[in-house]
Structures are given as structure tokens and as C-alpha cells.
Amino acid sequence: MGLCSASAVVSHTMRMSNSSKLVSLITDHYGLVKVMARGARRPLSKYGATLEPVTLIDCIYYYKNTRDIQTLSHAEIIESFSDLKADIQLFSIASCMVEIAQSHTAPDDPSAGTFALLVESLDGLKKSSRMDADKHLWQFMLRFLAAAGYCPAFDKCLKCGKKPRGKSVFLSYPDGGVICSCTDPGDRFGIRVSPGSLRFMNDLMTSEVEDLARLKMGRAQRAEIEHLTLQFPSYHTGYSRPPRSLAFLRRIMAEKKK
Fold first, then answer.
1. What's the pLDDT tens digit per position in 121-176?
2. In whole angstroms, what is the distance from residue 233 CA to residue 230 CA?
3. Which CA distances in Å does 44 have to 40, 41, 61, 170, 253?
4. Is the dihedral of CA 124, 22, 2, 46 positive or negative?
5. Strand order in the sheet with 169-172
6. Dist CA 96 CA 229 (whole Å)
7. pLDDT tens digits for 12-61?
8. Which of 124, 228, 244, 245 could form a disulfide linkage to 96, CB 3.0–4.6 angstroms apart?
9. Residue 241: what pLDDT?
10. Separation between Cα atoms, residue 235 and residue 217, nearest integer Å
11. Predicted local distance difference test score (pLDDT) of residue 75
């Protein structure tokens, strides 16, 4: 048994007894780690609000390679993201980011920069306006795909090598890129994407966080981008369940439009 120290984003908690919590952590160097926080549910717990989801912490835990759940020894808050938690829409988007990161982060595997990307995205969301919040979610999704090695190429056709042309282009999931009107995609698995959505996704990938407010996204584009960023990684990873937080976010957005 040894002590491990890590920075982590709290992604999920579960009641284990009247006094303890099971906590899932997305860590900087150890991938997804599950720890038992003994006494965390007591009124005068030393952890306080430290182990709430969407919280950036420093932690120390006892590690033993023969068990799947480690024992938490110490935790303190680096960033509580209280501004996000105070706004139901922003908190729903932050929860989506964390849930997506957890679902694609394996134990003992930093997942090619997942932790750093998640923290950067949460920090950018914290500084954004509610009008631009959606853009932060889809930028996170696209950059997450890139970090995991799955992100498709949007800027040129796989067949002719030129800028995609036509009223719509075909995004091929297995080929990881787009096929324009120069050829028939045949029986490849994928979806049709409008040129506007294609340009917007490329802009999301290349824009700095502070420049997102300048990008304009229509309702139809949002639906296409959401579908693509959920289905594309599902094809490659086999993980098909959409984030539960996303369903709640959709309800919030629907209420806003009434």
C-alpha cells in the first residue's frame, strides 16, 4: 500500500453508508480513480463541500493494486466553480462535460490530456456568458474527440483532397473524414452534414475560448453538431449511452424557447 497525490475533478459521488461516500475522480496522472471517503456524509466531516461533483481538488489517497476502490486520506478545494453551480444552465453544461470525460476515461490511464482539457473547458465556461454556453460544450466535445484520437477532418474531402463542396457532405465515421459531392459514399456508415455546420465545427476546433462569442450557430446547426459529437465517438468506442445531464439540459433549453 502506498500514498498517491493527485489533482482531480470530482465527477460522481454515491452514498455507501450513513457516513461514507464512493467518489469518482478524473485525475491528472492516474485516469479515473474511485475512492472511499469515510466519514464524508457526517455533519462535521473534514471534507465539507470538497467532494461535490464539478469541483477541482487536490487529494491524497491510499493505493493498493489488488483493489478497485482506494481509500481517500485528504482532499482540499482548488476551484469550486461556484459560479457554474449557481446557474442551472451552466451547471448542466458543466455536468455534461464531466460526465462525458468520465465515460471515456479508463483507470490508470490519463487518456491523452482528458484532465487538462476538462479543467480548461470548465474554466472557459465559467468566464462565458449564458448566450455562448452551448458553444463551450460542443467545443469541448470536438476537442475531446481529438484528444482521444477520434476527431474527423473537416477541412478537405477524403477523396478529392479539396475543400468539401455541395449542398451537404457525408461524414464517414469509419474513415474519420468527409466525402463531398465528388463521389458517392456508398454504404459507408455516417451522416450528412450541411456546409454551415462543417464550417462551424472547424471554427470551434481552431478558435480560442475567448473568441467563441463571435461564432454564430443556428438551431439546425446545433442539432447536427450535437448528433455528430455524440454518435462519432460511440461508433469508435462502443459506448452509446448519451450523457444523462444532456437530457436535462435539453429540457432547460426547451423551456427557454417557450
1. 999 999 888 778 888 988 898 888 887 777 778 888 888 888 877 677 888 888 88
2. 6
3. 9, 8, 20, 57, 38
4. positive
5. 153-157, 177-179, 169-172, 190-193
6. 13
7. 999 998 899 999 999 999 999 999 999 999 888 899 889 999 999 999 99
8. 245
9. 67
10. 25
11. 96
Phi, psi of 224 (to 5 degrees): -65, -45
Q: In b/e form, how buried is each residue of 140-158, taking b as 16+ CB within 10 angstroms?
A: bbbbbbebbebbbebeebb
**Alpha carbon separation from 88 to 48, 214, 242, 251 (Å, rounded):** 22, 24, 19, 11
Sign of CA dihedral 203, 208, 212, 215: negative
Domains defined along the chain, listed by start: 2-80 (2.40.50.140), 83-257 (1.20.1440.120)
Residue with the three cell numbers 461564432: 215
Q: Let me know: does 111 contact 103? Beta carbons within 8 Å.
A: no
- What's the confidence (pLDDT) of residue 258? 55
d(CA 36, CA 38): 6
Q: Which amino acid type is present at position 116?
A: A
Q: For residues 84 and 63, what is the distance between their CA atoms, to the nearest angstrom? A: 32
Dig out the grid coordinates for 76 from the structure: 482540499
